[in-house]
Amino acid sequence: MDGLQFVNKFWHSETRDAEMQRLRKQKHAAHSNVHRLKRKIREMEVARRLLLVAFLATAHANSVLHGRIEQYVIDMDNVSDV
């Protein structure tokens, strides 16, 4: 084996290790991103459920208020007819 072949094998193994290290870092970054995105999905799901509850409560309160206003108008019409 001459010197050029030896150096070539050395650099091949060195660059392969560097490449593997780079790929490991990319894999770690991808796993971190997946974890962050899954956490964000859970938070958004909770927020969606809270918004739905708030919407339903508001819709119910609006319906009750609408009924009371209708009753008040009917009562006022009865008073004015007397």
Give your account of this protein's structure:
By secondary structure, the protein is an all-alpha fold. Helices cover about 95% and strands about 0% of the residues.
Labels describing this entry:
82 residues; mainly alpha; 0% strand
Low-confidence stretches: none
Percent of residues in beta strands?
under 5%
Oligomer: single chain
Largest sheet: none
What does the overall shape look like?
Answer: rod-shaped
Q: Tally of extended strands? A: 0
Distance between the termini: 118 Å
- Element order, helices and strands? H
Number of helices: 1
**Helix share bin:** over 70%
Give a nutshell description of this structure.
This protein is mainly alpha-helical and 82 residues long.
